[in-house]
Amino acid sequence: MSVEPVRVVLAGVHGHGRWHLDNLRRLASRGAVRLAGVCDTRPVDAAQLAGFGKPEQAGRLGPLVRRTGAELVILATPIHTHAELGAEALRAGAHLLLEKPPAGSFADYTRLSEVVTATGLACQVGFQSLGSAALPYLRDLLAGNGLGAVRGIGVAGAWARPSAYFERAPWAGKRRLNGIAVTDGALTNPFAHAVASALSLAGAEEPGSLREIDVELYRANPIEADDTSCVRLRVAGGTVITVAVSMCAERRHEPAVVVHGEHGQAELTYTTDEVCLRRHGAPDEVTRHPRTDLLENLVAHIRTGAELLVPLHRTGAFMRVVDAVRRAAEPRPISPVHLAGQNGGRVLAGIERLTRRSAEDLALFSELEVPWAPAEQVLRAGDRDVAVYRWYTDGLPESVAPRPFLYSVRTLAGTEVSETAPADHPHHLGVGLAVSDVDGTNFWGGRTFVQGQGPRWLGDHGSQRHLRFTRRESGGFTELLDWVDAGGRTVARERRTVIARRHQPSRLPGCWELDFTFRLDGIDRAPLRIRSSHTKGRAGAGYGGFFWRAPASSTRRRVFTAEADGEDAVNGAAADWVGLSGTSPSGRDWTLVFTQCGPARDRWFARERDYPGIGPGLAWERPLSSGSVTRRIRTVVADGRLDRRTAAALIRRTSER
Q: Residues in domain Gfo/Idh/MocA-like oxidoreductase N-terminal (predicted)?
């Protein structure tokens, strides 16, 4: 009994749609499909449709599907149209083969998923690499403990793309187009298969299967999106995945997915379906695997109920990565000094070796001492760059208690309101977290106050070491750190969240807000003993905790609360908020207003005469002993010199929000 060919509409014929035409022609010759229609904004010439008869052409997808009775739509249109046109095809009654990435944002993916569920129709996503038998082969190998315990999965990819690649379409190299998320970049489009293959091997395909996502984006070309990027993922089960890719290589290098096991490595080249096993003490074992065409699989699903290889729900974790890329800080430009102009584009020297190092070490670019990838991030409040966060401590002397910090913090008008390593106190590092005594270790920097002796150099300085980001976006991040004493022993662990926000001008006119939260835990919840110099006998020196060092060059400095003015009255006060204002050398006024959130409220350490600085003291009146210490400080950063009535109103508005 003969089976009727599946009637197909191809939406998006130009560009990658040409590949689909060739595949349709192959399957049509076998009687599996019939091209019933093509949908495109431009007419398709007869030569392109040779061998298909006279399929109907139209510019609107839904009506074309209904008129032709199409059972299947292949959607090869621009990324930002996927969700809308995919939903239109499904509602018109057609199953869907959707090009990757499924959408430009997780919200669009969710809306499309809801339509798939409501219609009961199939949506197969065009991750051709997931049709390879190499993946189940490797999954079976790992499940059978063929490599022992898996340490992680690293992916490396470096391709050559001329500058014309980013000019091939209006959406190419864009993050957004006409207000709609495109999210076209190295990780999310050309190397999307690399990300999807690694997630599949890790068994992490559902939306909730990723615990952490940390993204770094760079660009050598003058585009909005990234052409060089990396991501580190932490799967709910604990497996770490890194992907480092670039389109700025001198020539094409086949991408590699490297599984690091206790007893060796397995390397998948997904473009050739080849697996190389490297076990300790054994010769390399290379195998090649067949691949199932995803359109054939979808046709079989429609006619016989065969299981789909890449249903939409299996791309949920991938779409979480896409959304993290969408929300990430703007790609950092790579200076021309690191580039060459071969291949009609921009070549990044040594990028193939660098991506391979990333895959071997499971490291991000910023962790590989790359000059164009410094370990720091620009924070944005709305559309303004307002601060830089530096998390590497290389080059900082031990005497400053090396630690991550915010620097170049500025108002919306651009007036700098922080200072790093000033001559008066070189250990004051912008805005951050510093404590003078944690279990006997100086995490503040400078001299240590010794009761009965005064300040002394003791060589007891600790350091805060960045471990990793669990989340990073343009407006902030969550970071994990170790606090390590002078002997290298971990004293405490910290989880830090920093967020920059710009509110509606009607709520906070001319202002933005820095929200800084930290939780400091003793090892195995052992109590931490935190002391200040005040608790050791140095009156008024209750510093230790969140601290903001403002510029000493500021004049007309004023520190104030709702009831008090001046350093003598404010230092040690238990006030709801504290304000600090000054005037920059260029004559611009600024004001900072600090408040503490949550049940714990500390007394304020305040300076304005010798230098300007503010911070709540964790251990003002007596030492603090606790297995876990959590604090949240919100700071309004304002242009102009605010009076106490305006400062109080701004704090009320942030609290109401």
A: 7-127
